[in-house]
Amino acid sequence: MSAKIIDGKAFAADVRGRVAEQVAQLKARHGLTPGLAVVLVGEDPASQVYVRNKGKQTIEAGMNSFEHKLDASTPEAELLALVEKLNADPAVHGILVQLPLPDHIDEAKVLAAIDPAKDVDGFHISNVGLLATGQKALVPCTPLGCLMMLRDHHGSLSGLNAVVVGRSNIVGKPMAQLLLRDSCTVTIAHSRTKDLAEVCRGADILVAAVGRPQMIPGDWVKPGATVIDVGINRIPAPEKGEGKTRLVGDVEFDSAAAVAGAITPVPGGVGPMTIACLLANTLTACARAAG
Ligand code: GUN
């Protein structure tokens, strides 16, 4: 293996430490404590784990954590009323509604109801537009974490060829916008892209965010490229015993690490950065509210 392994766990701990210092300063100077409200509708096991971790790390950073767990059958109007209440609550600086929502709830309607100044996910149309037009926005946490690791590794990203595989609103599209803002030449590839392998081979920066286990093999990676693997997929691991599973990314790690210059592992790469950036966004939202 030749690639440098980018340690997202250590990087995220560092970001959280810096956020905690600034939270302490905000408290001392302005008597303000940032507050993050997380809303979970239903009992999706993965979402429950995320929400638990978010709450724990929010408190560790010295912020207030408000958790709202609603039944899966909660009517849309009730969720919208809760969002309105959180919008009006001065102790709440950040609001995150955990996705996916149950089918009977219109996700776009709920995201549109969140006050853009408290939209720490950066999913509100207003923040999407601000990011796309190069203005001050709250930026989605996972791509923001990826960007931080890329900047740390490369210094300047200017002029690099970046390929983002995946076009979701949560990762692919905002990732492309952030890379463009840093003057990369950006390609967004997806399931209909012709000769995806060849497109990937042109990437100095390859971001995989498709949600398909180990879809990108090492021979799609340009020698020396930086590979950011956003995928978190659970696959059977019979070698660990019957019924056991393990986590893998969207990239075939061993073959990619043999040719890449740097690569994020799964787990321990992008994942821990997402919550660290959520805390950073909550701090930003609180500091902006303080003026
Ligand atoms: N579900 C999976 N990732 C995310 C995220 O970043 N934000 C929210 N709100 N829900 C998610």
Automatic annotation (TrEMBL):
Keyword field: Amino-acid biosynthesis, Histidine biosynthesis, Hydrolase, Methionine biosynthesis, Multifunctional enzyme, NADP, One-carbon metabolism, Oxidoreductase, Purine biosynthesis
Domain spans labelled Tetrahydrofolate dehydrogenase/cyclohydrolase catalytic: 6-121
GO terms, molecular function: methenyltetrahydrofolate cyclohydrolase activity; methylenetetrahydrofolate dehydrogenase (NADP+) activity
Catalysed transformations (reactions): (6R)-5,10-methylene-5,6,7,8-tetrahydrofolate + NADP(+) = (6R)-5,10-methenyltetrahydrofolate + NADPH; (6R)-5,10-methenyltetrahydrofolate + H2O = (6R)-10-formyltetrahydrofolate + H(+)
GO cellular component term of the entry, any: cytosol
Keyword Oxidoreductase tagged: yes
Enzyme Commission no: 1.5.1.5, 3.5.4.9
Coiled coil (UniProt feature): none
One Pfam family it belongs to: THF_DHG_CYH_C
Alphabetized InterPro entries for the sequence: Aminoacid_DH-like_N_sf (IPR046346), NAD(P)-bd_dom_sf (IPR036291), THF_DH/CycHdrlase (IPR000672), THF_DH/CycHdrlase_cat_dom (IPR020630), THF_DH/CycHdrlase_CS (IPR020867), THF_DH/CycHdrlase_NAD-bd_dom (IPR020631)
Residues given in the record as NADP(+) binding sites: G166, R167, S168, I232
Pathway(s): One-carbon metabolism; tetrahydrofolate interconversion
Domain Tetrahydrofolate dehydrogenase/cyclohydrolase NAD(P)-binding per the UniProt entry, residue ranges: 140-288
One of the GO biological process terms: L-histidine biosynthetic process
Domain of life: Bacteria
Entry-linked HAMAP family: THF_DHG_CYH
Primary role: Catalyzes the oxidation of 5,10-methylenetetrahydrofolate to 5,10-methenyltetrahydrofolate and then the hydrolysis of 5,10-methenyltetrahydrofolate to 10-formyltetrahydrofolate.
Homology family: Belongs to the tetrahydrofolate dehydrogenase/cyclohydrolase family.
Subunit structure: Homodimer.
Protein name listed in UniProt: Bifunctional protein FolD
Native organism taxonomy: Bacteria, Pseudomonadati, Pseudomonadota, Alphaproteobacteria, Rhodobacterales
Encoding gene per record: folD
